[in-house]
Amino acid sequence: MLRPQLAPQRQRRRRRRGRAAVRDLISTLTRASNKAPVPYVPASYANGLSHIYSEPKGAEAEMRAYGANGTLFGLVNRLMTTTGSVGWKLWQKAASGKKEDRKEVTRHLALNVWNKPNKFFTQRRLIESGQQHNDLTGETWLIVARNPLARSIPLELWPVRPDRIRPAVHPQEFITGYIYTGPNGEQVPLEIDDVIPMFQPDPENHYRGLGPVQALLRTIDSQKFSEEWNRNFFRNSAKPGGVIEVEERLSDEEFNEFRDRWAESHQGLSNAHRVAILENGMKWVDAKISQREMQFAELAEIAPNRIREAFGFPQFAQGIVEDVNRASAEASDAMYAKWLAVPRLDRWKDALNSVFLPMFGDTAANLEFDYDDPIPPDAAAQNAERESKATAAKTYIDAGFDGDSVKTALDLPDTLKWEKPEPPAPPVMPGQPGQADAKPPAKKPAALRLWNAAPDDTEPDADMEQVQADWEEQLAALLVVWAGITAAQQAELLPQVIAIVAAGDIAALAALTVTVVTATAVLTAAMAAMGARAARRMAAEAAAQGVQVPVPVSLPGLDPIAEAVAQLLGEGLAQAAGKEAVRVYAPGVAAEQVALQVGAHLEGLSDAYLREQLGAALTRAQNVGRLETVRDVPQTIYWASETLDRNTCKPCREIDGTEFESWKAAWDAYGGGTYRACLGRNRCRGTVRATWNPRAGA
């Protein structure tokens, strides 16, 4: 059944009502998106009482403490000068999101204002002033001065005292503006976009900040009072106070006369140690509390330590270091920059990018401020990174990956060029045409029986020298990369030591841990590269005898070995750190001092053990690569070679030159890398050779 059509007027009224409903919905959603979802202040504040402001918590007393306490002054001064000395740049964001792809912007109004905030303040002075307020009160407030004719254009930035500015709070709007109170009590209303706040969050008040000094006021007062007591002690002739007893009550005239004469004759340093004469039965009674009983020496140590603890400020950052060397000094600089400078700079960067830059509209839509990295560059880590990438690139290419894809994956420079290698010739199996006779090996086993004695000739030939050169080159490259891994693991261990010692949980030093993901990946790649190289070397030895054998695409069993070795080396480093921390720890020794000595100890460790373990892993990969290349190749003779050993033990001398009954017998002896019966264990450099020619005299 067809519906009757509506009259044109009714259709227009319905469309108007529909559009109005949509507008109301959009308006409602817009208002809701700009309001607080829950009230932060009482609802009564919305009934004409939004002028009730959130008050600061004793900000004036906290700022006064800066000039009254030497430890606090030195600490805050160091923090603000460090923060103010870092350079800033304006960047155009990259589509990739990577920092290295950004482009620096050298001309922009926002950059001009940031570099010269106003006529009287430099950028450094502005940052130092704001950071000083932040470390003392937990708050930084910047006022934006604008062009009266074009209010949307910010022209200047001014820092103001935290105790003079108050947000006008509201249950739904959260903040409706700010009020600045001048020195004479005059109040200046400010719009929300006239103020740039930076807070250390206060858990009880979302409108104000909370700094460490607020938790330290009693400690600071205690130190102040003890110093005043000491000052008065010396003003009173460096003697404790006392009481003068009289037998009879003194008249007012007698009391005033005695007081004035006593002050004239005995108060002040110039009257120290003068003999007092007491009349009419007067007696002097000493006070019972002495300086020793007041424990001023202990109090003088407690207050600075508590101030540093509240700021998370290590002793070495104030120059308090009992044992220092170059390594510990560089580590101290890096730790200070990472833990103290970077978080403060990040707070400034957030304010600039989230509040300041949006004031410039679309001209700053794709821009961001960023600071120069304050963490000192680690030359050793940078070199290790380059070596690691080079080794990884070689490993991937040796494994058959395309060079361009490797360059992209490892983020290598575009200046590197890759030439695609020629494909290998098809394999020629023994007995096929083209197989040439080869010379017999230099060492000839006495019999086919396993484990028979080796001949006297123990000099390595050219093939074995190449095998040794391959191993030494791969080990040298791996040790360079591993230096960076060790440095990163040390950087993980030192904060753990500091936290454990500071908490007093010394038993936890036995449970230090390091991350071995990178170490496992690097060793896995190095072993794969060593195995692939050994396989190609064995194929070349076969080709020299006229036999073409295929190079295996993959080698079994190397990955779990790499993971186990990396884990054991990491645990060994963690145990070394824990043992040294236990050795140098004593009650009262600062946690940072223990960590510095642990760091120096780890830096001084010999690489002999590391060389042995990594060398054994590469030996395993080399022998697996050699054996897998000639696995079950017809007419192959497998025999042991120990000519690469520098100090050959008796079992290795006995196996040297022995012909194995099968590939399986050779694998059982050398498939684990080193010869299983070798007394030198991981230092063994024995391997397996293969020939395809009848032995003379067999």
UniProtKB/TrEMBL annotation:
Record bears the keyword Iron: no
Transmembrane segments annotated in the record for this chain: 506-529
Keywords: Membrane, Transmembrane, Transmembrane helix
Pfam families found in the cross-reference section: Phage_portal
Biased composition (Low complexity): 431-441
Region Disordered, residue ranges: 1-20, 418-441
Regions of compositional bias (Basic residues) in chain numbering: 10-20
Protein name, as recorded: Phage portal protein
Taxonomic source organism: Catellatospora methionotrophica
